[in-house]
Design goal:
The complex is a heterodimer of chains A (291) and B (291).
Chain A (H helix, E strand, L loop, with lengths): L1 H4 L2 H35 L3 H4 L14 H7 L10 H36 L5 H13 L6 H11 L5 H25 L3 H9 L4 H12 L1 H17 L2 H6 L5 H6 L9 H21 L1 H13 L1
Helix pairs in contact in A: 2-14, 4-5, 4-14, 5-8, 5-11, 5-14, 6-8, 8-11, 8-15, 9-10, 11-15
Chain B lengths: L2 H30 L2 E2 L8 E2 L3 H8 L1 H32 L6 H13 L2 H11 L7 H7 L13 H28 L4 H9 L4 H29 L3 H6 L11 H11 L3 H26 L8
Antiparallel strand pairs in B: 1-2
Classes of the chains: A mainly alpha (291), B mainly alpha (291).
Chain lengths: 291, 291
């Protein structure tokens, strides 16, 4: 009845809207389908995971995979996966936090300097940061490998942090410089007039105001560090979680359901971080990458 | 202390760090590429351009170059086009847009290596769900071990990486779209421009600088892709997914040929830096996030 009385443009508009919502649903499926499968498997017994056709919701949900990992025990089905996951997650956190702290300290001061001061070599400094940003990690791994080997620092948490500074520090400096550039100079100047030293102006005036910039940089660096695989694979013996997850290949060593639970535990921290600080992260990403 | 000195002192720790963890490893890798580097502490010997000759003269290099170009083409196309479509969709005033934008962050926040783990088991014929879905809707007649097939292995290692990267592209496109003044689009509407005309005449020119940025980043990430391939196929079946970074890994860590590995690393590094430098020049004064 309605269709007859509606004019063509209105119909057209409704059809377009329906198409857009259909596209939105497809988009949600694209994002969530792999996760559904992953989370679903993590609550299954190894026997149920190989059912044909597969169960889209576990019929006998179990927490066995998670409890084995959290207790550091051999998982259901005799899998060894659980033994290493908890320590690797801990190392990933340690490496991530240390990398973030080093980045904020080194990058915060340098970005402020590049935003506010001209000195001999200041342009060269800025271009060296840009250049360092362009050097791909894989291109300099040989030097790191030989150096860490000769220093006895293969598989060292601190060795890995030093290496991670190579690709995270340029990001931090670019994101923070961008942020400082957006803060009016009058802020620093007012503090100086009030008798603060330049260092006090940075610490007591700029640092609190620039919090969103610091949050963005910290999140980006933590995400980069958390997901870094190549250096962790080549410079450590499965120290952090990425090489541990990637190390399980055949069904003889492990079962998929426990690996699924381990993968869930490894993907929750970065996703949660990105969602909680969504605004800061997206802004920092766009400005740090594109400017 | 003068302003100049203060600025230099603030910037110095970061600059020294970058010299230590990017500059010196870069130069060291360049030096290794002209040397034979023994496994022990014995001194390396200079061998001229032998390592480059060895890498370039190897049949596997040419094969790997072809695979890398195919991989990169597929990856760039998929990650960029999907990213653009997602961004255009999520720029529409639809209900649930806020949730959809939060969803958009998730694949990007998921480390590439974890995307690889998820997709590897999703397409596994024993525990994965994809085979069942394709079987139920009649696309395949039998459960297929996709990663054992040369072509499918390439397709799915591309797909897993592009699943992550399409979100990254979309976040950047969306950031650019949000700086597009609404009045311009409205004016075009008032003038009777169709949706396609508005896209061609207004939206596309606006995001073109960002498109350049996204394509260049995606090209570099494509050429340097390691994570998904390593976890899903390790370069196989045969050499079907042996990208140049996989070849580099083998030279350095399987054959322990630091010299040849470094030569390949230098070539990859130079290509990456050149591509992004050319892009920066092309971009000129255009700001992809012009506000």
């Amino acid at each position: 009845m309605a269709s007859r009385t509606l004019s063509r443009p209105v119909l057209r508009k409704r059809a377009v809207t329906a198409l857009l919502y259909a596209a939105l649903v497809l988009f949600a499926v694209w994002v969530l389908f792999p996760f559904w499968f992953l989370v679903n498997s993590s609550f299954m017994t190894p026997a149920e995971a190989v059912a044909v056709p597969p169960h889209w919701i576990p019929e006998e949900p179990t927490l066995g995979n998670y409890s084995a990992i959290l207790a550091g025990q051999v998982a259901p089905g005799g899998a060894q996966v659980g033994l290493r996951v908890l320590t690797a997650l801990g190392e990933s956190f340690a490496v991530g936090i240390l990398t973030v702290v080093a980045n904020l300290a080194l990058g915060g001061t340098a970005a402020y300097s590049m935003s506010r001061f001209r000195f001999r070599g200041s342009r060269l400094s800025y271009f060296s940061v840009l250049f360092a940003r362009l050097v791909p990690p894989i291109a300099i791994v040989a030097a790191f490998f030989v150096a860490l080997r000769d220093l006895g620092l293969i598989n060292s948490r601190y060795g890995l942090v030093v290496v991670y500074i190579s690709f995270t520090l340029p990001i931090t400096i670019l994101v923070l410089k961008n942020y400082f550039d957006g803060l009016p100079r009058e802020l620093d100047e007012a503090a100086l007039v009030d008798g603060a030293s330049r260092l006090q102006a940075l610490w007591y005036v700029i640092r609190p105001i620039a919090r969103p910039g610091f949050i963005a940089a910290a999140c980006l660096v933590f995400l980069e560090s958390w997901g870094e695989f190549f250096y962790a694979l080549t410079l450590t013996n499965q120290l952090t979680i990425p090489p541990v997850l990637a190390g399980f290949r055949g069904f003889f060593q492990f079962n998929w359901t426990t690996l699924a639970a381990a993968t869930v535990l490894a993907v929750v921290p970065p996703v949660l971080l990105a969602l909680v600080f969504q605004r800061y992260v997206v802004r920092g990403l766009a400005q740090g990458v594109a400017k | 202390m003068s302003d100049r000195q203060f600025g230099l002192v603030l910037a110095l720790p970061a600059i020294i760090s970058l010299v230590l963890v990017v500059g010196i490893p870069g130069v060291q890798t360049l030096i290794y590429s002209f040397q034979r580097v023994p496994l022990s502490d014995d001194p390396a010997t200079f061998v001229g351009t032998d390592n480059y000759g060895k890498v370039l003269g190897d049949e596997s290099f040419v094969e790997s170059l072809v695979v890398t170009l195919q991989y990169t083409a597929g990856y760039v196309l998929l990650a960029t086009v999907l990213g653009l479509l997602f961004a255009l969709l999520l720029d529409q005033p639809l209900r649930g847009r806020g949730i959809a934008r939060a969803l958009l962050i998730i694949p990007w926040a998921t480390p590439v290596i974890i995307a690889g783990v998820m997709w590897k088991w999703l397409i596994d014929p024993q525990v994965g769900g994809l085979n069942a879905v394709l079987f139920e809707i009649g696309v395949i007649e039998d459960y297929k071990p996709f990663l054992a097939d040369r072509e499918w292995a390439l397709v799915f290692t591309i797909l897993a990486a592009a699943w992550h990267q399409a979100s990254f592209s979309a976040l950047l496109f969306l950031a650019s779209l949000q700086t597009l003044p609404n009045e311009i689009v409205e004016a075009a509407k008032v003038d009777g421009a169709t949706a396609w005309q508005r896209f061609r005449g207004v939206v596309f020119p606006w995001i073109r600088p960002m498109l350049l940025v996204v394509v260049v980043i995606n090209v570099i990430y494509g050429v340097l892709q390691f994570d998904t391939v390593w976890v899903m196929t390790q370069g196989g079946p045969g050499d079907a997914t042996t990208l140049l970074p996989i070849l580099l890994y083998r030279q350095l860590f399987i054959f322990s040929d630091i010299g040849a590995g470094s030569a390949l690393a230098v070539m990859l590094g130079v290509v990456a830096v050149l591509v992004s430098s050319i892009a920066l020049i092309l971009l000129g004064r255009d700001d992809p996030l012009a506000a």
